From TrEMBL:
Residues spanning the signal sequence: none
GO function term, MF aspect, one: hydrolase activity
Keyword Hydrolase: yes
Classification lineage: Bacteria, Bacillati, Bacillota, Bacilli, Bacillales
Record-linked Pfam families: Hydrolase_3
Record keywords: Hydrolase
UniProt-listed Gene3D superfamilies: 3.30.1240.10, HAD superfamily/HAD-like
The name this protein goes by in its record: Cof-type HAD-IIB family hydrolase
Top-rank taxon: Bacteria
């Protein structure tokens, strides 16, 4: 079985690397013959620093499905087309937006230098903040602020792009159309094999829809309708997550191994 894990708010917290207890639980999943996959809103660049090095060569799905890496090499990249990007940048200018825009590796950031997003941005210092025109392609846009964020969201929703509003951070997350974590799994043939999903936010909804079993961490009013189980946020959250990972690993154990 494939086990697919979101990162932030699911198995990583407050921008920190995954704990040793989580790492051990994931290794136990592999010892049971399953495959561990990570799927995040973060680009690959920002996934690697929070994932234990023993998993760096695994399948990593970044940018909400826009990027796929294997053995630390990006093997798939889905980007906005020129027409979409032109219209979006016009809206960003119109609404005086601040944003983080990602290409396959480098990025463009025009927000304040004390914004919390910077705590998770390129912690490995492997990328550059470059002018927007310097990117060959854009795979994801995170809008941090605007003079009217709701109006901007409504205009984006009229486009053929994927828009998620993250209420806790009060940001808009934009990806190319038909791109999400589940479509990335489909492109790799993994959905047809079956998978268990762990996630916590709106960008995990499609992932949960395709899962054989889905576990929600915390509370999200829409995601909960697609979850088979929920682990509520408590002072012992990580121990409950570890317990559920190990339980499901044993429940779905079978002899198939992956190279």
């Amino acid at each position: 079985m494939n086990f697919v894990f979101d990162l932030d708010g699911t198995i990583c917290f407050k921008g920190e690397t995954m704990s040793q207890d989580i790492v051990q639980a994931l290794h136990a999943v592999e010892d049971d013959g399953h495959r561990v996959i990570f799927a995040s809103a973060r680009p690959i660049r920002d996934m690697l620093p929070v994932i234990h090095p023993s998993f760096h060569d695994h399948i990593l799905i970044g940018g909400n499905g826009s990027l796929v890496a294997s053995e630390q090499t990006i093997v798939q990249s889905k980007s906005f087309d020129d027409r979409e990007l032109s219209f979006i940048t016009e809206l960003l200018d119109k609404h005086k937006a601040t944003y983080l825009i990602d290409s396959d590796w480098n990025y463009t950031y025009n927000g304040p230098q004390d914004h919390p997003i910077l705590n998770n941005l390129d912690p490995g210092k492997t990328a550059q903040n470059v002018p927007l025109a310097h990117h060959d392609r854009i795979i994801k846009i995170l809008i941090l602020s605007a003079n009217n964020l709701k109006s901007l969201e409504n205009e984006l929703l009229r486009m053929d792009v994927v828009v998620h509003y993250h209420g806790l951070e009060q940001v808009l997350d934009i990806s190319p159309t038909t791109i999400n974590k589940r479509t990335a799994l489909q492109s790799l043939g993994i959905e047809s094999e079956g998978y268990i999903a762990f996630g916590n936010d709106a960008n995990d909804i499609e992932l949960f829809k395709g899962a054989q079993y889905a576990v929600m961490i915390g509370s999200h009013k829409t995601l909960r309708f697609y979850a088979d189980d929920t682990i509520n946020s408590t002072s012992h959250l990580e121990s409950h997550i570890v317990e559920q990972i190990r339980h499901l690993s044993q429940k779905y154990v079978y002899s198939t191994s992956y190279s």
